[in-house]
Amino acid sequence: MIVEIGHFALVLAFALSLVLSVVPLVGARMGDARLMGVAEPAALSILALIALSFAALTVAYVQSDFSVANVWENSHSAKPMLYKVTGVWGNHEGSMLLWVLILAAFAALVAIFGRNLPATLRANVLAVQGMIAAAFLLFLLASSNPFERINPPPIEGQDLNPILQDIGLAIHPPLLYLGYVGFSICFSFAVAALIEGRIDAAWARWVRPWTLAAWAALTGGIAMGSYWAYYELGWGGYWFWDPVENASFLPWLSGTALLHSAIVMEKRSALKIWTVLLAILTFSLSLLGTFLVRSGVLTSVHAFATDPTRGVFILMILVAFIGGSLALFALRASSLTAGGVFHPISREGGLVLNNLFLTTAAATVLVGTLWPLLVEAVSGEKISVGAPFFNMTFGPLIVPLLLAVPFGPLLAWKRGDLYAASQRLFVAFGLSLAIALATFFIVDRVSALAAFGIAVAFWLVFGALTDLALKSGVGKVSPAVALRRFAGLPRSVFGTSLAHAGLGLTTLGIVAVSALEVERIAVMQPGDAMDVAGYELRFDGIFPFEGPNYTEEQGRFTYSDRSGRERGEIVSAKRFYPARQMPTTEAGIASRGFSQLYVALGDRAPDGGIVVRAWWKPQVLFIWIGCVSMMLGGAISLLDRRLRVGAPAARRAKPARPAVEPAE
Amino acid sequence: MAMTRKQKRLAVIGGAFAFLAVATTLTLFALGQKASYFYTPADVAEKGVAAGERIRLGGLVATGSIARDGGTDVSFAVTDQIETVTVSYSGILPDLFREEQGVIAEGAFDASGRFVADTVLARHDENYMPREVADSMKARGIWQDEE
Predict the structure, then answer these.
(1) Longest dimension (CA), chain B
(2) Using one digit for the tens of pLDDT, what is the confidence trace for A2-33?
(3) What is the pLDDT of residue A654?
(4) Could you tell me which chain B residue has the CA closest to the CA of A162?
(5) d(CA A74, CA A580)
(6) Kind of pairing, strands B84-90 and B115-122?
(7) Is the ipTM of this complex over 0.85?
């Protein structure tokens, strides 16, 4: 019964989203407040209905109701409760339901917090949200219904894909979807602005928090996915340039560009048309990502059961929204007035440079991702574009950007002084150079390229710290005053610094692992020892272990550090899930500081030995610590007074800006 | 040094175009160099592959062909039921690597004509077959969808 209620709620949500996509739009056109007033209750009701529907599916999973096809295909009564709940979105239908749930939640947030928006803007934004919701709800109902029953119901389910039976499934998809779908708000604002043919700094002030929130969530989602793949797949890699990874990376790149161009628009009302275009492109890339993952046109870990009709359906949604919004852009963009002028060497100029690099980098990733599809469509030949392509194109394009990052925040608006900025960055430059030279000469196996990478990483970190130090007046005023100023800096300044420093930390981790990783592979008998970068790994033997819905052969290892002292145990296992007749590898990982010892098991040899592959991954944790720092930076910026929801309303009259811009 | 509005705009647009030109060149060059083509063993026999050229070799793991040297080196044969290519690999094979299952080996032929793979990909779950492999087998009428 509850399952049918869930299904019915989804149908109602679809009907309401049709109302939401039309009525407020007409109301805004005619200036009818009552018609526009439909938007808020409609958005809230859609959220309530989809939440009810989602809850119904969750109940079916928790109760292991195998009369529901979706539950039967993806669950098992012996599965731990956590995976019963997360399994709701560990499949195509459920994950699309989560997608629309988050979409509806964002629309409801705009409805609630947008009460001080101009009435027509709010009505138009919510109408566009309604259109997106309608399209995806129709997709769910027509081709991916999660509530389909089977008769007679099977006794036992087929279990969730074991690779997904991990805490990662609880965090990675929801965060990723918060990011993907969060950009829909920026898209709706952009389309609404185009419909109205009017856009101003207040618009940018409105769009910025949503961009920040979506961007921070997407950053976290990608980082979590990367760490999950790292420890779950047992290959020791953190990024494979897999098409689906690229699909999430593309909106991240253009979202990062949007985040920065929205600053220019808010502060200087310049780059209006560009910002609107970026907002459209970013969500278009999110949709493209959804299409690539869900249609099964790409070979990937993420392709659940594939079904061509679904691919065509999402492709139609994709074409309608991207084509429609770009057509609207082409028609209306010229009506948006151009904004302030600036010198190429200025904060605006720096942010334009940032946008140029990020969008070009995104374009190369897009080309590399879609190229195999294109070649196959044209010539029928199957090719693969992998890591070597991306390292060769993305690398050279992103390094100059990383070098330029510390200059940006030090340049003044309108006209900056590059020479003065360089002088201020002298200490940061000297320090990072010194560290790079020191590692180059002291640590073995550090190539010149790796030393350069380390210099870039520290340059980013010290550059971010320099910005904080300068803005709090270190060296100019007494330490006590500087400390007080530091505490009083706007939160967005801390956000910028944290994010830029995080970029440096991630770079550091990537460079250290690429340059200094040690990999060993050997057949080991119990009692054998292996040397991995000075750590001794002793194999104690294989022990059986019984999990709730799997059996496991645990390889136990003891490891000693470079001084020969025993440090602890590492358990690496081969799991077998009988329900799906499927083995998985559980890597054994021990952290030493920010570095990790990573052990994966291979096949058993007939003589009782086992293939063991072990890595020393120096400073690897910085890759994800950097991402967390970026995410925190986004979150802290979000808390800035200036962006706090409602704050702009108090000074809608737009007071004359102070002659000297407050530190940003 | 004072630039007019027009000059500034030209500087920005000119810079952007120069940059895009560099990026485009780089991308086209990398696509020519770094994209690897998919071959089945029959394709290899028909077209020939130069030693050292990086390719993706796909097919089924031939029954009884998996041989281990007792250490970490493995060899197995990839077949499309027409031709067979023997692959050498050192490392841990994927969890779902099995006889008569779809597999993709990435690597190159060495000077002696042996195919040395540095990456071996197998299916991710029981519903999954590497798409290239499935397509090429279907095209040759060897493999059919179960449905």
Answers:
(1) 78
(2) 899 999 999 999 999 999 999 999 999 998 99
(3) 40
(4) B125
(5) 10
(6) parallel
(7) no
What phi and psi, each to the nearest 5 degrees, are found at residue A484? -65, -40
Residue A382 clears pLDDT 90, i.e. is over it: no
Q: Check residue A176 and give its pLDDT.
A: 92
pLDDT in tens, B26-70: 888 888 777 778 888 888 888 888 888 888 888 888 888 888 876
CATH (one of 2.40.50.140, 3.40.50.880, 3.30.70.100, 2.40.37.20) for B37-139? 2.40.50.140
Q: Is B139 on the interface with A (CB under 8 A)?
A: no
Domain ranges of chain B: 1-35, 37-139
Encode pLDDT of A630-663 as tens digits. 999 999 998 876 655 444 443 343 444 443 433 4
- For residue B127, give the nearest of A305, A352, A368 by CB distance: A305
- Is the CATH code 1.20.120 the one for domain A1-164? yes
Q: Which of A130, A243, A264 is nearest to A188 (CA)?
A: A130
Interface of B with A in 60-99 (CB under 8 A): 68, 70-72, 90-93, 95-96
Residue A172 · residue A224 · CB < 8 Å: yes
Q: Which of B19, B37, B92 sits opposite A611 (nearest CB)?
A: B92
Q: Do B70 and A349 touch (CB under 8 A)?
A: no
* CA-based nearest distance B50→chain A, Å: 16
By Cβ distance, the residue of A363, A523, A583 closest to B72 is: A523
Tell me the two tokens of residue A423.
């002088």
**Whole-angstrom distance, CA of residue A434 vs CA of residue A431:** 5
The shortest CB-CB distance from A299 to any of B71, B106, B131 is to B131
pTM for the whole thing? 0.90
Chain B residues whose CB is inside 8 A of the A607 CB are 70
Quick check: A374 contacting B, CB < 8 Å? Answer: no
Judged by a CB distance cut-off of 8 A, whether residue B30 touches chain A is yes
A610-617 and A518-524 beta bridge pairing: antiparallel
